[in-house]
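Let us practice reading a record.
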Amino acid sequence: MPVMAVETKVNHHEVPLQEKVKFLKRPEAYPEGTGLVEAGETHMSWVFLTDRFVYKMKKPVHYDFLDYSTLEARRYFCEEEIRLNRRLAGAVYLAAVPLVFDHAGQLQLGGAGIAVEWLVKMKRLPHERMLDCSIRNRTVREDEIRALIFRLARFYQRAVPVSMEPDLYLERIRERTDDNRQELTLPKFGLPNGQVGRIHQAQHDLLDRSPEIFKARAAEKRIVEAHGDLRPEHVCLGPEPVIIDCLEFEREFRILDPVEELAFLAMECEMLGAEELSRLIFTVYQESSADRPPDCLIDYYKSYRACLRAKIALWHIEEVTESESAHWRSRARDYLSLAEGYVGRFR
């Protein structure tokens, strides 16, 4: 099917974000044709779902941890997203597609012309097979979780270890723990400082009491370039599970202990009420690898990740209406409750 240009006349090469979004919400903008376009927005991207594909457009934003402010940067990170996600999602990630001006000065998705934006194109996965949806619908099977963790274990085993001095790894963990506390205790968020303080103190007590547990992860060359954002909504279950939406914009955030990454997934499963899956994840991981992490290490990572997710939930408050902010405050408190439960196990 030939590429179809939509009548969006422009006289220059700078197109406002809202004009790009308006164009991409139109079914006729897509060369393969579609009956409907579903649009969704995050603080970093716009996502457009057609009948068979997903198109992701990065916003021209600049934060401390990422810079999408130029067209060149957005193209680079689209290509990085594809490269990195093909490690665990194979042929789901198809191409970086330009949004261009054609010869008539009209916006067109793909084809020849002057690129004004870049989008990641990927196959659309069945929503009901995503792990978060399956948990809510109570349709998750043990064999599906086993297939998922076997695949992840192989991925970690084949990854090239990232060299890191044990003392530096321990210091990295301390700094990240302190970063969470600093953010979570800001008065504007109104969280119970006593609870945050208890969690933080218990985390530091473990680091002081058993530093060798953490240092061993680096000494044994366990640290790898992982996925970086292993959440249930990024997992599509099946005989050959697919893991999408890795964290592409900052390599440092992907440099992880696999046990931390799996603890993150397990914690998010618990957040959805599936504590049994949390236990199964590490049972299968130990069956499929030579790694035997102590329980307190797993619980530390879970508590750290729960605090991090609480922090990210609070960031949304500054981007939404007052009526919506209550949802994110409640979510942050739920994560803190999880974190407090975890630290209670290793005090």
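A brief commentary: DSSP finds twelve helices and twelve strands in the chain.
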